[in-house]
Amino acid sequence: MPYQYSRRIRTEEKKNIRKARLFIFLTILLLALFFVFGIPSIAKFAAFLTEIRRTNTKIEVSDNTPPPPPRFEPLPEFTKEDKVEISGQTEAGAIVKLFVNNKEAEVIANNQGHFNYTFTLNDRENTLQAKSVDQAGNESSDSDKITVFLDKDAPTLTINKPEDGSQFYGANEHQIVIEGASEEDAAVNINSRMVVVENDGSFSLYTTLSEGENSFSIKTRDKAGNETEKTLKVTFNP
């Protein structure tokens, strides 16, 4: 019995030794695999994480460049309307500061840089100027100054000759000249026929009369669009 017990112990010891050797071998193998493949993989993974952090990091760039001054679409130099709509272009999202008759107003340009604003005119001269402020707070230089005149007065119109109701006779008076005066730079039409207006506002038109009553519609229109109309009637007897 003691001999069998001792033999069993030696057998178990041999099994334990083999297990220990196998464990040591596997441990060494795993460590070798870790150092051969694990460290480069860890390094690559760490580099990958660093790149992700770098990509997600917000890069702040200092913007010290002022935007260009606003550009206005053409406005009438003269108008008879009480209100005028301003529209123009500047940097997208910029604040447009408008200075109308020394009063300030602000509008924000849309994503395409377009802006518009309606303002009420004072009688006679009105001045408009603007500047832009971008989202970084940079301010542009002043835009060109624009002047708009509000004129609601009808232009003057005088018919110097012939007198209304005049009568003409015979071949020598078959042709007459209509003479008159209006404002400088006004547009004059007689029976829808354009007439040349001189620098002093005077105008004249030679015309041939028809037998009987002849009616002439004389219209003058100023730069603001105001109109004055008069009718001249004369009679011709051959």
UniProtKB/TrEMBL annotation:
Domain Bacterial Ig: 80-143
Any Pfam family: Glucodextran_B
Domain of life assignment: Bacteria
Keyword Mitochondrion: no
UniProtKB keywords: Membrane, Transmembrane, Transmembrane helix
TM regions (residue ranges): 21-43
NCBIfam families: Ca_tandemer
Name recorded for this polypeptide: Bacterial Ig domain-containing protein
The species this protein was found in: Candidatus Woesebacteria bacterium RIFCSPHIGHO2_02_FULL_39_13
